[in-house]
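From the shared-data thread, chain only:
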Amino acid sequence: MELKFVLFFVVNSTMILGRPRHRWEDNIKLYIQEVGCGRVDWIELAQDMDRWRTIVNAVMNLRFP
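Structure, as tokens:
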């Protein structure tokens, strides 16, 4: 009787297995930290086009020399 209960037991859970997914926002924060601008808010940084362009170019130079 107990074995049958174990075989047909259904777990009602919404837990996703595996590692958490990366969002594109997480990747942007990671790239900014790699360049050396660790505690900068990336949204404010993106509003200043000249600073954003220098950061993007620095990241691109790190990724693809």
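The longest helix spans residues 49-63.
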